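Hi U.,

Before I forget, here's the chain from the pilot set. I'm dumping it here mostly so it's searchable later in email.
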Amino acid sequence: MNPSPSSTQLPIPPNPVLVIHYHEIALKGGNQAYFENILKRNIQQRLADLSQARVRHMRNRLVVRGLPPEAVTRVIPRLQQVFGIANISIGTEVDASMEAMKSAAQALVQGLSFASFAVRPKRAEKKYPFTSQDIGREVGAAVWEVSHARVDLTHPELEVFVEVVQGKAYIFAAKLPGPGGLPVGSSGRGVVLFSVGFDAPVAAWRMMKRGLSLHLVHFHGQPQTDDASVRKARALARVLAQWHGRIRLTLVAFAQAQEIISVACPERLRTILYRRMMMRVANKLAWRYHARALVTGESLGQVASQTLPNLAAIEDAAAFPVLRPLIAFDKQEILAEAQRIGTHDISILPHDEACTLFQPRRIETAAKLEDVRAAEEALDIPWMLEQLMAQAETEIILPDWDTRNS
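Structure:
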Protein backbone atom coordinates (compact mmCIF):
# COMPACT_ATOMS: atom_id res chain seq x y z
CA MET A 1 0.00 0.00 0.00
CA ASN A 2 1.26 3.49 -0.80
CA PRO A 3 1.91 5.73 2.20
CA SER A 4 -0.76 8.21 3.26
CA PRO A 5 -0.13 11.91 2.69
CA SER A 6 2.22 13.69 5.08
CA SER A 7 1.21 16.61 7.28
CA THR A 8 2.57 19.06 4.72
CA GLN A 9 0.51 17.51 1.89
CA LEU A 10 -2.83 17.45 3.69
CA PRO A 11 -5.09 20.50 3.68
CA ILE A 12 -5.56 21.79 7.22
CA PRO A 13 -9.27 22.18 8.08
CA PRO A 14 -10.49 25.45 9.62
CA ASN A 15 -10.97 23.82 13.04
CA PRO A 16 -8.43 21.02 13.09
CA VAL A 17 -8.22 18.33 15.73
CA LEU A 18 -5.33 15.97 16.29
CA VAL A 19 -6.26 12.36 16.98
CA ILE A 20 -3.48 10.62 18.90
CA HIS A 21 -3.37 6.86 19.13
CA TYR A 22 -1.20 4.73 21.38
CA HIS A 23 -0.58 1.00 21.39
CA GLU A 24 1.37 -0.29 24.37
CA ILE A 25 -0.55 1.87 26.84
CA ALA A 26 -3.81 0.29 25.68
CA LEU A 27 -2.50 -3.08 26.89
CA LYS A 28 -2.03 -1.92 30.49
CA GLY A 29 -5.44 -3.05 31.75
CA GLY A 30 -6.30 -1.53 35.10
CA ASN A 31 -3.19 0.67 35.00
CA GLN A 32 -4.06 2.27 31.65
CA ALA A 33 -5.35 5.53 33.15
CA TYR A 34 -2.03 6.07 34.95
CA PHE A 35 -0.08 5.92 31.68
CA GLU A 36 -2.71 7.95 29.79
CA ASN A 37 -2.51 10.77 32.31
CA ILE A 38 1.28 10.99 32.05
CA LEU A 39 1.10 10.93 28.25
CA LYS A 40 -1.55 13.65 28.35
CA ARG A 41 0.68 15.78 30.60
CA ASN A 42 3.70 15.31 28.31
CA ILE A 43 1.64 16.32 25.27
CA GLN A 44 0.21 19.36 27.05
CA GLN A 45 3.75 20.52 27.86
CA ARG A 46 4.55 20.57 24.12
CA LEU A 47 1.51 22.80 23.61
CA ALA A 48 2.21 25.28 26.42
CA ASP A 49 2.79 28.14 23.96
CA LEU A 50 -0.68 27.57 22.47
CA SER A 51 -3.01 28.73 25.22
CA GLN A 52 -6.22 27.46 23.60
CA ALA A 53 -4.96 23.93 22.93
CA ARG A 54 -6.53 21.25 25.11
CA VAL A 55 -5.91 17.51 25.34
CA ARG A 56 -8.77 15.15 26.20
CA HIS A 57 -9.19 11.39 26.64
CA MET A 58 -11.56 9.78 24.15
CA ARG A 59 -11.74 5.98 24.58
CA ASN A 60 -8.21 4.63 23.89
CA ARG A 61 -7.10 7.77 22.13
CA LEU A 62 -6.31 11.40 22.93
CA VAL A 63 -7.78 14.33 21.03
CA VAL A 64 -6.18 17.78 20.81
CA ARG A 65 -8.63 20.60 20.20
CA GLY A 66 -8.19 24.37 19.96
CA LEU A 67 -5.15 24.46 17.67
CA PRO A 68 -5.00 27.36 15.21
CA PRO A 69 -4.68 25.90 11.68
CA GLU A 70 -1.37 27.69 11.14
CA ALA A 71 0.13 25.99 14.23
CA VAL A 72 -0.57 22.41 13.16
CA THR A 73 2.53 21.81 11.04
CA ARG A 74 4.67 23.38 13.77
CA VAL A 75 3.21 21.17 16.49
CA ILE A 76 3.31 17.83 14.67
CA PRO A 77 7.15 17.43 14.80
CA ARG A 78 7.08 18.10 18.54
CA LEU A 79 4.47 15.43 19.10
CA GLN A 80 6.37 12.94 16.95
CA GLN A 81 9.02 13.06 19.70
CA VAL A 82 6.62 12.20 22.53
CA PHE A 83 7.18 8.67 23.74
CA GLY A 84 3.96 6.70 24.11
CA ILE A 85 2.42 8.01 20.87
CA ALA A 86 1.97 5.39 18.15
CA ASN A 87 0.60 7.78 15.51
CA ILE A 88 -0.98 11.21 15.05
CA SER A 89 -3.68 12.24 12.60
CA ILE A 90 -4.88 15.67 11.49
CA GLY A 91 -8.62 15.60 11.14
CA THR A 92 -12.02 17.10 11.67
CA GLU A 93 -14.45 16.56 14.54
CA VAL A 94 -18.16 16.51 13.68
CA ASP A 95 -21.35 15.19 15.22
CA ALA A 96 -21.70 11.48 14.52
CA SER A 97 -24.58 11.88 12.05
CA MET A 98 -24.20 10.26 8.67
CA GLU A 99 -24.64 13.54 6.77
CA ALA A 100 -21.99 15.30 8.89
CA MET A 101 -19.53 12.45 8.34
CA LYS A 102 -20.12 12.42 4.59
CA SER A 103 -19.65 16.19 4.29
CA ALA A 104 -16.48 16.11 6.38
CA ALA A 105 -15.00 13.30 4.29
CA GLN A 106 -15.74 15.19 1.07
CA ALA A 107 -14.10 18.33 2.42
CA LEU A 108 -11.07 16.33 3.52
CA VAL A 109 -10.35 14.78 0.11
CA GLN A 110 -11.42 17.76 -2.03
CA GLY A 111 -7.90 19.00 -2.72
CA LEU A 112 -6.17 15.62 -2.94
CA SER A 113 -5.24 13.63 -6.04
CA PHE A 114 -5.63 9.86 -5.82
CA ALA A 115 -6.68 7.07 -8.15
CA SER A 116 -8.04 4.68 -5.50
CA PHE A 117 -9.27 4.88 -1.93
CA ALA A 118 -10.71 2.95 0.97
CA VAL A 119 -12.81 4.06 3.92
CA ARG A 120 -11.70 2.60 7.26
CA PRO A 121 -14.57 2.99 9.77
CA LYS A 122 -14.33 2.23 13.48
CA ARG A 123 -16.97 2.53 16.20
CA ALA A 124 -16.05 2.75 19.89
CA GLU A 125 -19.72 2.25 20.88
CA LYS A 126 -21.47 -0.74 19.40
CA LYS A 127 -24.91 0.73 20.26
CA TYR A 128 -24.39 3.46 17.68
CA PRO A 129 -27.26 3.24 15.16
CA PHE A 130 -25.00 2.76 12.12
CA THR A 131 -22.77 -0.28 11.67
CA SER A 132 -19.20 0.02 10.45
CA GLN A 133 -20.37 -1.36 7.10
CA ASP A 134 -23.03 1.38 6.90
CA ILE A 135 -20.42 4.06 7.54
CA GLY A 136 -18.01 2.60 5.03
CA ARG A 137 -20.66 2.35 2.31
CA GLU A 138 -22.19 5.81 2.80
CA VAL A 139 -18.95 7.74 3.37
CA GLY A 140 -17.33 5.83 0.49
CA ALA A 141 -20.11 6.91 -1.85
CA ALA A 142 -19.67 10.52 -0.74
CA VAL A 143 -15.92 10.40 -1.42
CA TRP A 144 -16.55 8.87 -4.84
CA GLU A 145 -18.95 11.72 -5.71
CA VAL A 146 -16.16 14.31 -5.46
CA SER A 147 -13.20 12.20 -6.62
CA HIS A 148 -14.51 9.48 -8.98
CA ALA A 149 -11.59 7.39 -7.76
CA ARG A 150 -12.08 3.65 -7.62
CA VAL A 151 -12.57 1.78 -4.37
CA ASP A 152 -9.68 -0.53 -3.47
CA LEU A 153 -9.90 -2.05 0.00
CA THR A 154 -6.58 -3.90 -0.33
CA HIS A 155 -4.03 -1.47 -1.79
CA PRO A 156 -5.61 2.01 -1.89
CA GLU A 157 -3.62 5.15 -2.61
CA LEU A 158 -5.64 6.96 0.05
CA GLU A 159 -7.26 5.74 3.25
CA VAL A 160 -10.05 7.78 4.81
CA PHE A 161 -10.46 6.97 8.49
CA VAL A 162 -13.75 7.52 10.30
CA GLU A 163 -13.77 6.95 14.06
CA VAL A 164 -16.99 7.32 16.04
CA VAL A 165 -16.39 8.01 19.73
CA GLN A 166 -18.80 9.30 22.39
CA GLY A 167 -21.22 10.90 19.95
CA LYS A 168 -18.49 12.50 17.82
CA ALA A 169 -16.89 11.42 14.57
CA TYR A 170 -13.26 12.03 13.65
CA ILE A 171 -12.39 12.01 9.96
CA PHE A 172 -8.77 11.98 8.80
CA ALA A 173 -6.63 10.61 5.98
CA ALA A 174 -3.14 10.05 7.37
CA LYS A 175 -1.46 8.47 10.37
CA LEU A 176 1.84 10.17 11.03
CA PRO A 177 4.21 7.96 13.06
CA GLY A 178 5.14 8.61 16.67
CA PRO A 179 8.04 6.96 18.51
CA GLY A 180 5.91 4.45 20.44
CA GLY A 181 7.05 3.13 23.81
CA LEU A 182 5.90 4.45 27.18
CA PRO A 183 5.58 8.10 28.24
CA VAL A 184 8.61 9.61 29.96
CA GLY A 185 8.04 9.60 33.71
CA SER A 186 5.82 6.52 33.81
CA SER A 187 8.62 4.13 34.85
CA GLY A 188 10.37 6.21 37.48
CA ARG A 189 13.72 8.05 37.36
CA GLY A 190 17.25 6.97 36.48
CA VAL A 191 20.74 8.50 36.54
CA VAL A 192 22.73 8.11 33.31
CA LEU A 193 26.52 7.91 33.34
CA PHE A 194 26.68 10.24 30.37
CA SER A 195 29.85 10.05 28.30
CA VAL A 196 29.72 12.02 25.07
CA GLY A 197 30.57 9.37 22.51
CA PHE A 198 27.89 7.49 20.62
CA ASP A 199 26.81 4.97 23.24
CA ALA A 200 25.51 6.84 26.30
CA PRO A 201 23.15 9.21 24.40
CA VAL A 202 21.61 6.25 22.55
CA ALA A 203 21.28 4.32 25.82
CA ALA A 204 19.58 7.35 27.41
CA TRP A 205 17.15 7.61 24.47
CA ARG A 206 16.33 3.91 24.73
CA MET A 207 15.53 4.20 28.43
CA MET A 208 13.35 7.27 27.81
CA LYS A 209 11.37 5.13 25.40
CA ARG A 210 10.72 2.70 28.24
CA GLY A 211 9.26 5.53 30.30
CA LEU A 212 12.28 6.46 32.42
CA SER A 213 12.79 10.09 33.45
CA LEU A 214 16.53 10.81 33.34
CA HIS A 215 19.22 12.74 35.16
CA LEU A 216 22.49 12.93 33.20
CA VAL A 217 25.90 12.98 34.92
CA HIS A 218 28.97 13.76 32.83
CA PHE A 219 32.54 13.31 34.10
CA HIS A 220 35.07 15.66 32.50
CA GLY A 221 38.80 16.21 32.74
CA GLN A 222 38.99 19.96 33.34
CA PRO A 223 41.28 21.73 34.12
CA GLN A 224 43.68 19.14 32.64
CA THR A 225 41.60 19.09 29.43
CA ASP A 226 39.72 21.78 27.53
CA ASP A 227 35.94 22.21 27.77
CA ALA A 228 35.11 20.30 24.58
CA SER A 229 33.47 17.36 26.36
CA VAL A 230 31.36 19.69 28.52
CA ARG A 231 30.17 21.56 25.45
CA LYS A 232 29.33 18.24 23.78
CA ALA A 233 27.48 17.05 26.89
CA ARG A 234 25.29 20.16 26.84
CA ALA A 235 24.67 19.87 23.10
CA LEU A 236 23.71 16.19 23.39
CA ALA A 237 21.49 16.95 26.38
CA ARG A 238 19.67 19.57 24.28
CA VAL A 239 18.96 16.96 21.60
CA LEU A 240 17.67 14.48 24.19
CA ALA A 241 15.58 17.20 25.84
CA GLN A 242 13.49 17.48 22.67
CA TRP A 243 12.32 13.92 23.41
CA HIS A 244 12.46 14.00 27.19
CA GLY A 245 11.43 17.50 28.20
CA ARG A 246 13.63 19.60 30.45
CA ILE A 247 16.44 17.45 31.79
CA ARG A 248 19.05 17.77 34.56
CA LEU A 249 22.74 17.59 33.64
CA THR A 250 25.36 17.31 36.39
CA LEU A 251 28.97 18.06 35.44
CA VAL A 252 31.66 16.46 37.61
CA ALA A 253 35.38 17.38 37.42
CA PHE A 254 37.00 13.95 37.65
CA ALA A 255 40.68 14.54 36.94
CA GLN A 256 41.75 14.82 40.59
CA ALA A 257 40.11 11.52 41.45
CA GLN A 258 41.81 9.87 38.49
CA GLU A 259 45.17 11.22 39.54
CA ILE A 260 44.76 9.89 43.09
CA ILE A 261 43.73 6.46 41.79
CA SER A 262 46.59 6.35 39.27
CA VAL A 263 49.16 7.02 42.01
CA ALA A 264 47.72 4.77 44.72
CA CYS A 265 46.40 1.74 42.81
CA PRO A 266 47.68 -0.92 40.36
CA GLU A 267 47.85 0.36 36.80
CA ARG A 268 45.94 -2.55 35.27
CA LEU A 269 42.92 -1.84 37.49
CA ARG A 270 42.77 1.93 36.95
CA THR A 271 39.94 2.01 34.43
CA ILE A 272 37.78 -0.28 36.55
CA LEU A 273 38.45 1.83 39.64
CA TYR A 274 37.59 5.02 37.73
CA ARG A 275 34.25 3.50 36.73
CA ARG A 276 33.53 2.32 40.26
CA MET A 277 34.09 5.85 41.55
CA MET A 278 31.74 7.17 38.86
CA MET A 279 29.14 4.64 40.02
CA ARG A 280 29.44 5.98 43.55
CA VAL A 281 28.88 9.56 42.38
CA ALA A 282 25.83 8.36 40.41
CA ASN A 283 24.60 6.64 43.60
CA LYS A 284 24.79 9.95 45.46
CA LEU A 285 22.81 11.73 42.75
CA ALA A 286 20.25 8.94 42.63
CA TRP A 287 19.64 9.23 46.36
CA ARG A 288 19.46 13.03 46.16
CA TYR A 289 16.99 13.11 43.25
CA HIS A 290 14.95 10.01 44.16
CA ALA A 291 16.10 7.88 41.24
CA ARG A 292 15.79 4.10 41.35
CA ALA A 293 18.28 2.94 38.71
CA LEU A 294 21.59 3.77 37.03
CA VAL A 295 21.98 3.67 33.24
CA THR A 296 25.14 3.11 31.18
CA GLY A 297 25.93 2.77 27.48
CA GLU A 298 28.02 -0.36 27.96
CA SER A 299 27.99 -3.08 25.32
CA LEU A 300 29.32 -6.52 26.15
CA GLY A 301 32.89 -6.96 24.88
CA GLN A 302 32.98 -3.67 22.98
CA VAL A 303 36.11 -2.49 24.84
CA ALA A 304 38.43 -4.09 27.37
CA SER A 305 36.61 -2.65 30.38
CA GLN A 306 33.30 -4.13 29.22
CA THR A 307 34.08 -7.82 29.58
CA LEU A 308 31.71 -9.80 31.79
CA PRO A 309 34.09 -9.96 34.81
CA ASN A 310 34.81 -6.23 34.56
CA LEU A 311 31.15 -5.28 34.27
CA ALA A 312 30.48 -7.32 37.41
CA ALA A 313 33.37 -5.64 39.26
CA ILE A 314 32.13 -2.18 38.28
CA GLU A 315 28.51 -2.92 39.14
CA ASP A 316 29.58 -4.03 42.61
CA ALA A 317 29.98 -0.32 43.46
CA ALA A 318 26.40 0.49 42.45
CA ALA A 319 23.69 0.87 45.07
CA PHE A 320 20.90 0.62 42.49
CA PRO A 321 20.07 -1.66 39.54
CA VAL A 322 22.32 -0.91 36.56
CA LEU A 323 20.39 -0.80 33.26
CA ARG A 324 22.41 -1.43 30.09
CA PRO A 325 20.03 -1.08 27.14
CA LEU A 326 22.85 -1.50 24.59
CA ILE A 327 24.41 -4.60 26.13
CA ALA A 328 23.76 -6.73 23.00
CA PHE A 329 24.22 -3.97 20.38
CA ASP A 330 27.22 -3.87 18.09
CA LYS A 331 28.85 -0.58 17.14
CA GLN A 332 27.16 -0.31 13.76
CA GLU A 333 23.74 -0.70 15.35
CA ILE A 334 24.58 2.02 17.87
CA LEU A 335 25.82 4.37 15.14
CA ALA A 336 22.67 3.81 13.10
CA GLU A 337 20.49 4.60 16.11
CA ALA A 338 22.54 7.74 16.85
CA GLN A 339 21.92 8.92 13.28
CA ARG A 340 18.19 8.29 13.63
CA ILE A 341 17.72 10.16 16.92
CA GLY A 342 19.94 13.13 16.04
CA THR A 343 22.99 12.65 18.31
CA HIS A 344 25.49 11.24 15.81
CA ASP A 345 26.88 14.47 14.40
CA ILE A 346 27.57 15.84 17.88
CA SER A 347 29.06 12.62 19.25
CA ILE A 348 31.51 12.40 16.35
CA LEU A 349 33.12 15.74 17.24
CA PRO A 350 36.59 15.44 18.87
CA HIS A 351 37.09 15.85 22.61
CA ASP A 352 39.42 14.80 25.42
CA GLU A 353 37.58 12.28 27.57
CA ALA A 354 38.01 12.03 31.34
CA CYS A 355 38.80 8.31 31.24
CA THR A 356 41.69 8.76 28.80
CA LEU A 357 43.60 10.79 31.40
CA PHE A 358 46.13 8.57 33.17
CA GLN A 359 45.13 5.79 30.78
CA PRO A 360 46.89 2.50 31.66
CA ARG A 361 49.00 0.82 29.01
CA ARG A 362 47.14 -2.43 29.67
CA ILE A 363 43.63 -2.83 31.06
CA GLU A 364 42.73 -5.91 33.07
CA THR A 365 40.10 -7.85 31.11
CA ALA A 366 39.14 -10.33 33.83
CA ALA A 367 39.27 -8.40 37.08
CA LYS A 368 38.71 -10.31 40.32
CA LEU A 369 36.43 -8.51 42.72
CA GLU A 370 38.68 -9.29 45.70
CA ASP A 371 41.62 -7.65 43.90
CA VAL A 372 39.57 -4.57 43.05
CA ARG A 373 38.34 -4.16 46.61
CA ALA A 374 41.84 -4.68 47.97
CA ALA A 375 43.18 -1.96 45.65
CA GLU A 376 40.55 0.48 46.93
CA GLU A 377 41.82 0.07 50.48
CA ALA A 378 44.55 2.56 49.52
CA LEU A 379 41.89 5.21 48.82
CA ASP A 380 39.96 7.49 51.15
CA ILE A 381 36.74 6.93 49.24
CA PRO A 382 34.41 8.97 51.51
CA TRP A 383 36.73 12.00 51.24
CA MET A 384 37.06 11.60 47.45
CA LEU A 385 33.28 11.39 47.08
CA GLU A 386 32.84 14.47 49.24
CA GLN A 387 35.24 16.42 47.03
CA LEU A 388 33.61 15.25 43.81
CA MET A 389 30.12 16.12 45.01
CA ALA A 390 31.21 19.51 46.36
CA GLN A 391 32.55 20.51 42.94
CA ALA A 392 29.68 19.04 40.91
CA GLU A 393 27.54 21.53 39.00
CA THR A 394 23.94 20.77 38.07
CA GLU A 395 21.99 22.68 35.42
CA ILE A 396 18.64 22.34 33.68
CA ILE A 397 18.67 21.82 29.92
CA LEU A 398 15.51 23.04 28.20
CA PRO A 399 14.04 21.81 24.91
CA ASP A 400 13.34 24.38 22.22
CA TRP A 401 9.58 24.18 22.78
CA ASP A 402 9.69 24.73 26.56
CA THR A 403 8.50 28.29 27.24
CA ARG A 404 8.12 27.87 31.00
CA ASN A 405 10.44 29.67 33.40
CA SER A 406 13.49 27.57 34.20
